[in-house]
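Structure ticket #2291
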Amino acid sequence: MNGKKSIKFSSAKERFVYFLELQGSNRNKFYQQSGMAAANLDKKGGLSEDSILKICSIYPELSLDWLLLEKGEIIRQETAKTVAMATAPQSIANNGSLKNEVSPEIMNLLTSQQNTIATLSKTIESLISKK
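Resolution: structure written out below.
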């Protein structure tokens, strides 16, 4: 065992409802976002192709392997890495553990964006102090 609690679901629909709960959302919010008819997730039967496409468009981070086959992690690994890199301070990104997982192009982009943010922050501070 890897220490993670393993929950087994009987359908993709049950997995999606669980995902919504993990996101702090619920069926009603999803119905509003997707335009799907109320109770679509409550009726018997599986998810339609249209429903899966709407789910993917609203929640691109959701792993289809997990949703459809219950394999792997709930969140797509590419999304998790992208979010980690986008939100990591430069010191974390350069400590070697994340640096080895991303391409040099992404590291350059991240560094450039961090420099831009630092420059803009200084400009904002300067403008505020002049008031």
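Closing remark: The radius of gyration is 20 Å.
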